[in-house]
TrEMBL record:
<dbReference type="InterPro" id="IPR005368">
    <property type="entry name" value="UPF0175"/>
</dbReference>
<dbReference type="Pfam" id="PF03683">
    <property type="entry name" value="UPF0175"/>
</dbReference>
<protein>
    <submittedName>
        <fullName>Uncharacterized protein</fullName>
    </submittedName>
</protein>
Length: 94
């Protein structure tokens, strides 16, 4: 499904193809960050949609002022996530 922004004021702006692409990428990032912030998508899905690594996504989230932690998580859920992250890091030799 394609996302369409219908706004007459925006339709009348003439920009180069390069600048249009830059603006569309920033709009996509903003849309994905908004969905992530309100909990509609996971950080993994956000990274996949944007075509970036999880580490790069964390940097982008920081720019947007979005916490990497889910405030609604219970302590046990957070502990399990930390354990899973430690396992992955250990497997990768960190």
């Amino acid at each position: 499904m394609a996302l369409t922004i219908a706004d007459e004021a925006l339709e009348n702006i003439q920009v180069s193809a390069e600048n249009r692409e830059k603006a569309l990428q920033k709009a996509k990032q903003g849309y994905v960050m908004a969905l992530l912030e309100i909990g509609e998508i996971s950080s993994g899905r956000a990274a996949k949609i944007m075509g970036v690594s999880r580490l790069d996504l964390i940097k982008i989230m920081n720019k947007w002022g979005i916490s990497i932690f889910d405030d609604s998580q219970e302590l046990e859920e957070l502990r399990q996530e930390v354990e899973q992250a430690e396992l992955i890091l250990n497997q990768q030799g960190f």
